[in-house]
Amino acid sequence: MFILKNSNRTAISSFIHQIEVAFYQFDLDRCDEKTLYVTVLFKYGTHQALCDFIYIIDQQEIYGAISINKHYEKVRDFIQQHFQQFLLYSDEMTLAKTFMKTVSFKKCLQQFARRYPTYTSSKSQSLENC
Prior knowledge:
Layout lengths: L19 E6 L9 E10 L2 E10 L6 E4 L5 H12 L5 H11 L3 H13 L5 H7 L3
Antiparallel strand pairs: 1-2, 2-3, 3-4
């Protein structure tokens, strides 16, 4: 994860709108009552990289970013190779939040909520408005 301070930097990295984030896999057994993991594919042209989003569920709002695991370095390299940019935490959060608006994410959250209803009951309603 990189955090850079630069007053000349735009709020959103230019690659955010060029990359496709596609659902790949959801394994409920990887989750616990406070964290939801969804595996996605980052796609750019014919190139792709696997990535895990981690969503923190036990807060007032759901927050997501890229999970730091076996895929993380490959995703960082993917962004640098194809876009000549660093992957910033703000980029991760933007990509994860955008994915939350998809039907795939909402289906994952429904499965998660059936197993772990404690923190998700109020969030399912608010996500329907995304």
